[in-house]
Amino acid sequence: MKFQKSPGTQDILPGAVERWQYVEGKARDICRRFNFREIRTPLFESTELFQRGVGETTDIVEKEMYTFIDRGERSLTLRPEGTAGVVRSYVENKLFGDPDVSKLYYIGPMFRYERAQAGRYRQFHQFGIEAIGAVDPALDAEVIALGYTFYTEVGLKGVRVEINSVGTPAVRAAFRERLLEFLNPKRELLCKDCQSRMDRNPLRVLDCKVDQAHFEGAPSILDSLDEECSAHFEKVKQCLTDMGIPYEINHRLVRGLDYYTHTAFEYKAEGIGAIDTVGGGGRYNGLVSDIGGPEQPGVGLGLGLERTILLLEHQQTELPNLHEIDVYIVALGEAADREATRLVYQLRMQGVRAERDYQGRKMKAQLKSADRLGARFTAILGDDELERGEIALKDMAKGEQRMVAISALAAELQA
């Protein structure tokens, strides 16, 4: 029987995985500089957590979750996004007892049963951050800035930041009536999803990628903001300007999750098909209490790593070669082969990336292997050189070769 990977999943093979390591490394470094600390939560949680946290009328909960009953008759769901699990952990482990803002980040797989398309899989990977414990709009701007910094530092060009305010539940309730007045005459022109959303969550109609042409002249939620929401949004914009983060206002941006309040934002980039959103997030002041914790405000983002890497490839971004090795030991002769085992291990213990041949190949084949692996140096050791305590060290880029003492090889390579 021939086994194949499940639809919507992928094997990330050597040669490609180094790009992932580079991108993930950038995310970790940026989080360190912004003082975010890593958190790791389970891959599956109670189904009710996502129903309550993400929102029962969202596409994620209605159509896309991988849900199953375990042997204890509990309904569990593979996590479709990261925020709900992080907030659950924040509440369960009483992190709200810390007097400082909890600044957390995660990198890992998420699961949604959706139609596969460019850069979108049923098992996908997300880099996300959550900052819980402050209402200051400067924190919203910091989160937006962190995401923008990530995209620019991995080497992407042309990434745009779009922001909006979705206000408070009271603001949205008032805006809902204005929006329905505009939408009701167009009901029959809209797709079935939008017709369904009109009855349950009209704001989500504006998020539709199919019916945007019908929304020309739609009322803007920005015109319904109260004084508090307007002041919050103005300070977010001011902070972004002060940091030099470019942004555009998109009054139709609502995001696909029900827990957002005040700030909502997305990162857009062209080049990976019809859907150009590569990440986004927003403020969620009511989510912690909805999940059983105290009233604690929060703001966060989630960025798709598959789409980031696809964009890097599309833009032909030059990435550092993380796989190349420092030295390849070429052993010729029985005694030299035995010494190579000791020498490679010794070099590795001193921080040198070293490799050797294990297939008994001739010198020419070993040198070809060193070239394929991107070795900066080859160190050629025969039985005669071994007796003299020497090894031939060749610089692969310059083509220069010289003899060095075996005992000094590590120091020569590190220099």
TrEMBL record:
It is found in: Cytoplasm. It is an enzyme of class 6 (ligase). One of its GO terms (molecular function) is ATP binding. Its EC number is 6.1.1.21. Pfam families: HGTP_anticodon (PF03129), tRNA-synt_His (PF13393). L-histidine binds at E81, G82, T83, R112, Q126, E130, R255, Y259, Y260. Keywords: Aminoacyl-tRNA synthetase, ATP-binding, Cytoplasm, Ligase, Nucleotide-binding, Protein biosynthesis. One of its GO terms (biological process) is histidyl-tRNA aminoacylation. GO terms for cellular component: cytoplasm. It catalyses: tRNA(His) + L-histidine + ATP = L-histidyl-tRNA(His) + AMP + diphosphate + H(+). Residues 23-320 form the Aminoacyl-transfer RNA synthetases class-II family profile domain. This is Histidine--tRNA ligase. It comes from Paenibacillus pinisoli. The lineage of its organism: Bacteria, Bacillati, Bacillota, Bacilli, Bacillales. The gene is hisS.
